[in-house]
Amino acid sequence: GPLGERLARWVPPRPSTPLGRVVAAGWAAPLTAVGILVALAGGRLPHWDATRGCLIARGVGGPSRRALGSVGADANTIGQVVLCRQAQPGAPLLDHESVHVRQGERLGMLLPISYAWASARHGYRDNPFERAARQGAADQLEASDH
Description:
The chain has helices spanning about 1-10, 20-40, 60-70, 90-105, 110-120, 130-145, and strands at about 45-50, 55, 75-80, 80-85. The chain is an alpha+beta fold. The chain has a 4-stranded mixed sheet, with helices on both faces. Helix 1 (about 1-10) packs parallel to helix 6 (about 130-145) and helix 2 (about 20-40) packs across helix 4 (about 90-105).
């Protein structure tokens, strides 16, 4: 429907002001705390990626690695934390996940609920949040080529 199509085009920009970044981080903080705990449980301490404005945990193990592998995913995002199975994830994957970081900064605790609803309705591949993340990563790749 119309909402799904709007969400599929929704690639929020990174907050541009210090206040905007603080507000976004605060709104995403409950999920970010969970993301940090999941990274630590996977044996990794997330590190700040200034380019993408988020925390990245590379080469996660444990339950996170098994969960990602069980669904055929290389990474997922919880709040402002990107959890990657690979030790050296590629830029397109990180750009895709950074769109989910921005979505989480806007929706906060509503994102997991909205994402689950969209997945149930559309499936993973056609989930509007995933479509937007693919578009955002493609836009970033195109911008870096110029």
